[in-house]
Design brief:
The chain has 289 residues and is mostly beta strands. The chain has 1 helix and 27 strands. It has a 5-stranded mixed β-sheet, with no helix packed on it. A 4-stranded antiparallel β-sheet has the order 1-26-23-22, with no helix packed on it. It has a 4-stranded antiparallel β-sheet with strand order 2-3-4-5, with no helix packed on it. The chain is globular.
Length: 289
């Protein structure tokens, strides 16, 4: 594994490959920052946000969709402009938005959690560019693990209270889920708790096993194919990207395990499988102010 930058991060999360710009985007949640990383030049750029930023997605118009403590926004890296869309949790001030991704339906799917990780007050939402919010699931501890199969017909999701990743049938036309079922249960003592996830072109689900330093690859049939040991323990999310050579990127958070301090970081290595290109937030019907 290669350490991409020597800068320490508090909670590096939501790595996202941008195939148009050939950049990796990710967030540092508690430091209120979005970062871009150019693997070819090694250049790291920081974009300061006004609040906690839990996750990001790509937009069709070149902007990013960002889940801040204050709600869902569109962010333009070229100008620094931040445009508010909607706050799906205006009635839950003790929560913060967490893991989020753009789905095959062109909407931003984002979950939440209690900001102190004490209460089961989280939920999962589907958000459109016009600000329409659908509550998809409620009663979640820490919403995590979002990913979709390459054909967009299966959605995966996990809850920090459980070591089981769930699978759902996904209707791309309506953006609805059905047929909830257990997909894979991790032995968290060995493989870590399932955190953020990504998908490869063969339909394998890649999950970060937090506090065990693992990246776990699970087949569409729910069989563990391999486990990669990272040089850090608090892995938060994998991302499969790269231009010429498929690359695995991994984010992590700062942790103290066995009295050893590890800062959050961004890691990368060449890998033998490509990822599914990121979906983009549909803004076609959005009237910009």
């Amino acid at each position: 594994m290669t350490v991409c930058t020597n800068l320490p991060f508090e909670i590096a999360e939501s790595p996202l490959w941008d195939d148009r710009r050939s950049l990796l985007w990710f967030v540092d949640i508690n430091n209120h920052a979005i970062h871009s990383y150019d693997p070819k030049s090694g250049v790291l750029n920081r974009y300061q946000m006004p609040a906690l930023v839990g996750s990001i997605g790509l937009s069709e118009d070149g902007r990013l969709v960002a889940a801040l403590k204050t709600g869902i926004h569109l962010f333009d890296p070229a100008t620094g402009e931040l445009e508010f869309i909607v706050n799906p949790e205006v009635d839950r001030p003790g929560n913060q938005l967490n893991d989020g991704k753009v789905g095959p339906d062109g909407c931003f799917w984002v979950g939440s959690m209690d900001e102190n990780s004490m209460n089961i007050s989280g939920a999962l939402y589907r958000v459109t560019a016009s600000g329409e919010v659908t509550l998809v699931k409620d009663g979640i501890f820490i919403s995590n693990g979002l990913a979709w199969s390459p054909d967009g017909k299966i959605m995966y999701h996990s809850d920090g209270l459980s070591s089981t990743v769930k699978a759902f049938d996904f209707d791309v036309a309506t953006g609805t889920i059905s047929n909830e079922r257990d997909f894979f249960t991790f032995d968290h003592e060995e493989f870590g708790w399932p955190d953020g996830a990504t998908m490869d072109v063969h339909g394998n689900y890649w999950s970060a096993g937090i506090f065990r330093g693992k990246i776990n690859q699970v087949s569409p049939e729910g069989k563990l194919l391999r486990t990669l040991q990272m040089p850090v323990l608090a892995t938060t999310m994998p991302c499969l990207g790269g231009d010429d050579v498929p690359t695995l990127f991994v984010t992590s958070l700062a942790s103290d395990v066995d009295d050893v301090r590890q800062e959050g970081t961004l890691l990368s290595c060449e890998i033998d499988v490509a990822g599914v290109p990121s979906y983009r937030f549909s803004v076609a019907d959005l009237t910009l102010s």
